[in-house]
Amino acid sequence: MSSRTQTTISSLEPLRATRSRWFGAVLWGALLLSGCKPEGATPLPEPPSVDPGEVQLAMGEVTPLGFESPVTIVGAPGSVTAGSTLFVTNLDSKSLPTAASVGSDGSFELTVEAYAGDEVRLQAVLWDTDATLLRSPPVDFRVEGGPPQALLHVTRLPCLLLEPGLEIDFGTHSRAALSNLTPGEIRLRNDCPQALDLSFDSFRIGGSEASFSVLPPTATRLAPAASVVLQASPDLNPAALTPAYLENTYFFFVTPVGEPITRYPITLRVVVR
Question: What's the start-to-end Cα distance of the chain, in Å?
């Protein structure tokens, strides 16, 4: 593997009022707020990508269920777009995300706090030629304690379509503009042959530190060929804000009638200047 660096998300106090509320990537948040293009980034016209088939767990490092420990995730050359920065978030923990630079050959290595059964989300970011930040779709994996130990790509119902996907990005706004933001939406369309039971749950970071509000659909069963809309908005007091990168994850669950339940994590983010 070529040389890489990893940033453990630890301190960005001007961008966070508390460690849990203003959780976000040091590098990612700082770049968004500064508007500066990082040196060494490869300008590309297309968003970066993550190839789940080339990402794996370093063997021998998974702690038995109930004990959180560092887990090393490695990507083979070509697994992620070269020159991008890769972020990983443990979806089953309140711990802060971790960032690692991707080598010139598209390989990477990073460490995240996790234990068997946890799901982790990987997402790559890259600056385009016009200084626009490009972002890959989220790619999720589950840590398997084994034997054998493994990092399994999480796939969900192919017949439930989420438009535009597993995230809502509200972009960058001044404090004054926050109160006028249009709610973000994700449309759920059921292309399955059977009805789907829906359960809308909670945030990864909950309570007063959630930083977002979600208006779920009123329907709890989605018939074949039917659609519903989930709405979300930043839930902030603009007068109390300093510049900040804010991110959280909202969970809902889908159960095809007579089949196992599937969890859907939705990433919500906004940058306040």
Answer: 37
User: How many CB atoms within 10 Å of residue 251?
Assistant: 16
Give me the pLDDT at residue 225, please.
97
Compute the residue count for the chain. Answer: 273
Please provide residue 87's backbone torsions phi and psi, each rounded to the nearest 5 degrees.
-115, 140
Q: What is the mean pLDDT of residues 149-175?
A: 92
Contacts of 130 by beta carbon, 8 Å cutoff, 6+ apart: none
Higher pLDDT, 46 or 215: 215
CB 196 within 8 A of CB 257: yes
DSSP secondary structure code for residue 137 in this structure: P
According to DSSP, the β-strands at 160-163 and 212-215 are: unpaired
What phi-psi label fits residue 207: left (phi over 0), alpha (psi between -120 and 50 degrees) or beta?
left
Put the strands of the sheet holding 160-163 in their side by side order.
160-163, 184-190, 227-234, 212-215
Find the angle CA(18)-CA(24)-CA(28) to the nearest 5 degrees: 140
Contact 201, 235 (CB under 8 A): no
Kindly list the structural domains of the chain, giving each domain's residue range(s) and its CATH number in brackets, ordered by start. Answer: 6-153 (2.60.40.10), 160-272 (2.60.40.10)
Name the one residue in this structure whose structure tokens are 């989420």. Answer: 162
Residue 23 has pLDDT above 80, yes or no: no
Query: CB within 8 A of 79, min separation 6: which ones?
Result: 50, 51, 54, 55, 106, 107, 108
Residue 118 DSSP SS3: coil
How are beta strands 262-272 and 167-173 bridged, if at all? parallel
- Structure confidence at residue 1 (pLDDT): 47
- Strand pairing partners for 142? 119, 152
Position 124 scores a pLDDT of 93
